[in-house]
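Q: Convert this sequence to structure tokens.
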Amino acid sequence: MRKQTDVLVLGGAGVDTVVHVPELPLPFADSHMIRPGIETRAGQSGDFVALGLHTLGLRTHHLDMIGDDHEGDLVRAFHRDHGIPFTEASQAAGTKRAVNLVGPDGRRMSLYDAARSHDADRFDESTVRELTAVARHAHVVITHPCAFTLPVLAEAGVTVSTDLHDWDGIDPYHEAFALQADLVFLSTAALADPERTMRHIAGRGRARIVVATAGAGGAYLLYDGELTHTPAVTPPAPVVDSNGAGDAFASAFILGLLDGEHPGRCGLYGAVAGAYACTVPSTRTGAIGRAGLLAGVAEADQERAG
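A:
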């Protein structure tokens, strides 16, 4: 049967309020005058991965729980405006939301509203099965209801990726995702020993590839037992906001894999897309297209060859 969807993205739909601060950590004060100001827009991890994949030309479908609220309307409009198919389940607690404090150098600190989810949150299993049956690959965000989709995805035989973000290598909540994915992304930010954590994931779970991103330090790739390093790529414009860079990296890496590229090559795809994402201001959403990605990869190849 011909698959109708290249990538099914599960979870991670929500709204961020981006606050530009003079520095991070933010010094204590009664008040701060900030510029360019405060921006509220749809776009959390699942939204950005879906946007990245879609802009790269992959047939993408997004599934998540959102509320009947203003934030939910922003999420619906985000998908409608970008032409990304979106299946929503009702979220009684409301649409996920967060506040991102962004410093002048583009670094950020995110504050997530934990009141916007319940322990009993679940996707309808028949909906997950129906969407998975026509997908080549599933990318699972580590939001609560997605944990319960992992056995369904395994039964369907679809390849799975996930992003553990700033996992410390210990929290058992993240480990459940890490051990049930074929491709695992995570950040080195909270890891005392990134290589040890990467080998733990590959050794105990089903992951064939583990990727640890290190921002300006590039990314580390574990594949076939070998650990390699992909240097960061120089952004094509000034860095203004690092939010979404990891999602862009994952989107381009997945594109490479689905196109049959070697994982090492996929790492370069990710580096180019992540660098581009850092140049996109919080006042808009945007992702690199396939032509721009391939041009950036070719330029990086020339720089490294010469």
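Residues 290-305 form the longest helix (16 residues).
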